[in-house]
Amino acid sequence: MHPFATALYRVGAVATLLVAPPLTIAVSLAALAGMTFFRMSPSAVQRFPAWWGRVICRLCGVRVEVHGRERLPAGRPCIIAANHSSQFDIFALQGYLDYDFRWLAKKELFRIPVFGPAMKRAGYIPVDRGRSREAVKSVTAAARRIADGAAVVIFPEGTRSPDGKLRSFKGGAMVLAIKARVPIVPLGISGSHRVLPKGRLLARPGRIVLRIGEPIDCASFSVKERDRLAEVVHQRIAALLAPEQRGG
């Protein structure tokens, strides 16, 4: 990349760091206003966070490619399981997946003024990430919401990979899929760890590739078989990643 272009994108990355919080508030307010005053449906207001994701990617000089979008179930609930190695995974998925989905989000986020109410009204699903009885109840409630028609994105690793390599999966994510009785769609995200590695504040210009695999039928799995399902999903996501990200 030409040095001038690199410098320009660095300015964009700094600008993004400064404008992302107010931009997030503005998008949340737009979504709330759309649903409250203009009777927009939760699906219709997804255009606002999609715009938010694209703006942030473009400001930072990040190009996003999507392959296999036709494999996403049309008009059916599903769980999209993706690897996670960067905060930019969220921007790329939100801005470029072009699919009506919601996020599972820790319940604490729903307490944030403006942002929390917007998430709740738009159909995002709160989960308790602890090990208490309330956590079990939240997974059951989330599974019921998904079975009723929601498509959601989850990161089965539970946290960002520090080096971009695929890590082991948490069993709770598989329990959610088994209880909801909906297919899991594997999705591999390549390149985001170079754009914004864990622990870094400023993004670098680059390319992120989203590869979508064939849906996995979870109907034959029981909760006791969650580890076996996790292994199947792990293998399918690994096959969608760049070779250096597939892990051991």
Keywords:
alpha/beta, Glycerol-3-phosphate (1)-acyltransferase, seven-stranded mixed sheet, 7 strands, globular
Task: Detail the topology: elements first, then pairings.
Layout: H1 3-37, H2 47-59, E1 62-67, E2 78-82, H3 88-96, E3 102-106, H4 115-122, E4 125-127, H5 133-147, E5 151-154, H6 171-180, E6 184-190, H7 192-195, E7 206-212, H8 226-240
Parallel strand pairs: 1-7, 2-5, 2-6, 3-4, 3-5
Antiparallel strand pairs: 6-7
Helix pairs in contact: 1-2, 1-4, 2-3, 5-6, 6-8
Description of the molecule:
- It is globular and about 55 Å long.
- The protein has a single domain, classed as Glycerol-3-phosphate (1)-acyltransferase (3-Layer(aba) Sandwich).
- The model has no long low-confidence stretch (mean pLDDT 90).
- By secondary structure, the protein is α/β, with parallel strands linked by helices.
- The chain has helices at 3-37, 47-59, 88-96, 115-122, 133-147, 171-180, 192-195, 226-240, and strands spanning 62-67, 78-82, 102-106, 125-127, 151-154, 184-190, 206-212.
- It contains eight helices and seven strands.
- The protein starts with a helix and ends in an 8-residue tail after the last helix.
- α4 (115-122) links the parallel β3 and β4 (125-127).
Q: Runs with pLDDT <50, length 5+? A: none
User: Which strand order spans the largest sheet, edge to edge or round the barrel?
Assistant: 1-7-6-2-5-3-4
Mean pLDDT: 90
Number of helices, where a helix is a run of at least 4 consecutive DSSP H or I residues: 8
